[in-house]
């Protein structure tokens, strides 16, 4: 590699803009640690005039990111646009084919096209680094690829979406409803660019689970349909009831090998307030890795926001500047396993079911009879009447039951006129 390293940054949203400032202000430190001088030769964004936290040198600006690669010899390209396809995919593919190293926080792109892009990087003898795509500032991918390299990992799980964790914690702390708290999360730059839905429906955490699985189990990034639920249906009411039960709602991503089959899920969980995971609050992420011989490793840190994300992007940069060409997925794509999916119907959990009902005789027994029919055994019932409106909230905690029963027990209540809305279901962990 030349002594002066030409760098381009495409995408100047909150992350790209923060990264640019870090690159500009940390040139000396980068040289001290790697012996390499970096030079930013080009940047690109849709709108040059947008108000940004840090000023952008207009002389470096390109509207079309693909023009950058035509006009400059770029050694390392940062992609911070954030699409799973479109221009993000195009610029990354073009760069890799050109022999340009790529660094990206784009989990949508890597979880969807990571196998092919890694193959392309290998073929062209360049790095494709995506530490920032999972758990923001926590160096978890590097920990799996390097620090835990020879462990046999059986499970990786944790809190992988900072926006959701922030929203759940803020609702509990401030007693505010979901939409108000979401607005604040967006202002803080936690939510995915342009589309907070991806944070709230579990997609963002799921993309991270897929990337973690590949690295943890030496397998191809999976494409199976999986159980994916976000926090959209969680109401302040659920958070308050959980609190009374000494529980907390957390959105967990879980990837596990069960009988050598891959089980990947994302869904809200009720966890004990006394547990470790129950105390990871705010924008914090936590990843727990179970492996042999290491045992259980826990990594915790800020999982979203321009600062933590840039921290991971710069660690990728330094990794490239320091050394050898690495396989993006730890081993060559041609040697990765294709794991079969575990049957989600066999997933077993206790359930929290919240029913909003008309307060009249026979309603509770209608619910319990239906549950009994599906062999869902009740562990606990809490009923809170709303006298003024002749309504009541009934919360049932079940004994452990399979996912198949769990699906059935939701659909069986659909046509009951005494049940005023679709029940809220949250699985209990453990
Ligand atoms: N939007 C993501 C989150 C941050 O809230 O965790 C980047 O991964």
Can you give a write-up of this model?
By secondary structure, the chain is of the alpha/beta class. It folds into three domains: 4-104, NAD(P)-binding Rossmann-like Domain (Rossmann fold); 143-302, Dihydrodipicolinate Reductase, domain 2, CATH 3.30.360; 346-428, ACT domain (Alpha-Beta Plaits). 36% of the residues lie in helices and 26% in strands. The chain contains 14 helices and 17 strands. The chain has helices spanning 14-25, 27-34, 65-71, 86-98, 107-123, 140-147, 162-174, 178-187, 197-200, 203-217, 236-244, 306-322, 363-373, 403-411, and strands at 4-10, 37-44, 61-62, 76-79, 101-103, 128-129, 152-159, 227-228, 247-258, 261-272, 284-292, 295-302, 348-358, 378-386, 391-398, 401-402, 424-428. The strands form two sheets. Strands 7, 8, 9, 10, 11, 12, 13, 14, 15, 16 and 17 form an eleven-stranded mixed beta sheet that branches. Strands 3-2-1-4-5-6 form a six-stranded parallel beta sheet, with helices on both faces. Helix 1 (14-25) packs across helix 12 (306-322), helix 5 packs parallel to helix 10 (203-217) and helix 7 packs across helix 8. It is elongated. The relative contact order is 0.13. The model has no long low-confidence stretch (mean pLDDT 94). L-homoserine (HSE) binds next to helix 7. L-homoserine binds next to helix 7.
Query: Total number of β-strand segments?
Result: 17
Going by CATH, the architecture of the largest domain would be: 2-Layer Sandwich
Count, helices: 14
Write the CATH homologous superfamily of the largest domain. Dihydrodipicolinate Reductase, domain 2
Domains, number: 3
| Low-pLDDT ranges | none
| Range of strand content | 25-35%
Q: What is the class of the largest domain in the CATH system? A: Alpha Beta
> How much helix is in the residues?
25-40%
Class by SSE composition: alpha/beta
Small molecules bound in the structure, each named once: L-homoserine
Q: What name does CATH use for the topology of the largest domain?
A: Dihydrodipicolinate Reductase, domain 2
